[in-house]
Amino acid sequence: MTKPFTVRVSARWRAVAAALILLALPGTAHGADTPTSTDLPDLTGVRSKIYAERYSEAVEELTALTTTVQHADLYNLLAFSLRNLERYDEAAKWYREALYYDPDHKGALEYQGELFLKLGQTERAKVNAQKLNFLCPDGCDELNALNLAIAEAEGTLGELPSGDSPRSALSR
């Protein structure tokens, strides 16, 4: 009687094979808790409305898009427009949604921080600034803008030494 041929595969090789199979599966490139975004349509027209401070028109157009598009940039623009219309509760919802789809969205972190300042929640704005400081170790416009807004809210803007940037002064 002959014995069946068996191959002994080490646990290490099984793990490598499993990893390769997982990488080959569609849709597994995203983190387990980060939802998949849909393609973002051209928002040039909406951005023009926002730059022209026609926020109500932008909100109308962006809200219609939320029924078919899931994207952090869309939600961030909608929240920005709502915040400028002083519709803070709605803006907060859409900033949360933007950060759900992209937790490192620098624009959403900056603007949500500015919303926190409008609501008198300076400590929460500082948390966003700390995250931006982590994301932008060499500085970035979003971090600088939020740090300036925090300094203005705290009344410390005039206390910056000459030549000192808002980033260096507020990140000490």
From TrEMBL:
It holds the Pfam family TPR_2. Residues 1-31 form the signal peptide. TPR repeats lie at residues 72-105. PROSITE patterns: TPR. The keyword Repeat applies. Keywords: Repeat, Signal, TPR repeat. This is Tetratricopeptide (TPR) repeat protein. It comes from Aquamicrobium terrae.
